[in-house]
Amino acid sequence: MFDGNYNQHLRLAYLVRPDESAVLVHGIQIQNIKENAWYEVFVDEHTGQLVSVTDFGAKATSGTYRAVPIYKHSLVDGTELIFHPEDLEASPYGWHENWTVLSTDVWEGATYRTNWDDDDWEVVAFDYPYDQTVAPTPVENRDAASITNAFYVGNMVHDFAWRYGFKPLTFNVQSDTIQDKWARGDDSVWIRIQWTPGVSDASFTTPPDGQPGILRLYIWNKSNPSRDPALANDILFHELTHGITGRVIGGGSAACLQTLEAKGLREGWSDAMAEWTEQTSATVDDYVIGAWINNNAAGLRTYPYSTDPTINPLRYSSLAGLTNVYQIGEVWANVLHNVYAALVQAHVWASTRFTNPDTSEGNVIFMRLFFDSLSI
């Protein structure tokens, strides 16, 4: 789990958890001189589980990012300077480790490796503006704002999905499986920014557990200047959800979801996940995906997702005769929209939805059912 040697310092202590409960732990120091790494890990004396890690090094594990907040649609809603968004339960080492600016856990932007060197390492503040008056392709837009947002959203997806059960032993995607030593690692997702050839599209490839998935984001030419889906959180969530559903269903084999109906379900799940992040109160609004990136208020689908049949008439019976996976996905996503709305109406809404899956509010129940059902 940790690459280093036990350095003979052991102690018995009580560790106070965030909920103010205390647990008896063994503190064990592990040191790797070659990698300049030195940790103290705390193991529950009763269960043997790892409960906390202290990093004695000065390297950065946390960062500050100018990005589109995870609950917003896209760049049209504005960016914010977001301080230390990582969830240390899901990412104990944070998002930066091993003296690089790559995520320890998942969703590594390939261009990070080549364009941001280690001279900025101790700063770890990615505050770069995006110039909307020019194309996405100039270096300042591509290597700063677009990559920062994709990196931020990808790691946020990892952390929140981990909370809901998408963990190493359930075939998730992350480099270092420190929480579950028997799970496969080294399968973080690579996000390809402004990928070519191709235009006005995005795609996700999900290989079996233990192999990295690839998210490809192509520049969209539906506006002038063109737009970068790395700044469209709805598109990022939709595509990254393919990596979740493709892994969990089939037990990490990535071999399921191959029939027409299954592919349609997969598209519907991805839209539903994107919508879930943007519903920000107990009032369930109609939802449109792809409005900004497609430069069209109607977005990418035939109808908005809605509880009002005069706005979206799609029902289960609408599936008859459909042969397009996206049209099938629209039916399923609208069904899920109505399920979500009913749960929130009955059980209200929780603002802590990204970090606390154990409450009884309707939006949290919906996401628990979403993840739990994938494993059935």
From TrEMBL:
Q: Which UniProt keywords apply?
A: Hydrolase, Metal-binding, Metalloprotease, Protease, Secreted, Zinc, Zymogen
The residues listed in the UniProt record as binding Zn(2+), with positions renumbered to this chain, are H238, H242, E267
Any idea where this protein resides?
A: Secreted
Cofactors, names only? Zn(2+)
Recite the UniProt cofactor note for this protein: Binds 1 zinc ion per subunit.
**Entry EC number(s):** 3.4.24.-
Q: What is its main location?
A: secreted
Note the coiled coil stretches, chain numbering: none
Mention one GO biological process in which this protein takes part, according to its record: proteolysis
What InterPro entries does this protein map onto? Fungal_virulence_M36, Peptidase_M36, Peptidase_M4/M1_CTD_sf
Could you tell me one molecular function GO term of this UniProt entry?
A: metalloendopeptidase activity
Q: Looking at the UniProt record for this protein, which Gene Ontology cellular component terms does it annotate, in alphabetical order?
A: extracellular space
- SUPFAM superfamilies associated with the record: Metalloproteases ('zincins'), catalytic domain (SSF55486)
Broadest EC class?
A: hydrolase
> What residues sit in the active site?
E239
Q: Identify its protein family.
A: Belongs to the peptidase M36 family.
Q: Which PANTHER family match?
A: EXTRACELLULAR METALLOPROTEINASE MEP (PTHR33478:SF1)
- Tell me the protein's name: Extracellular metalloproteinase
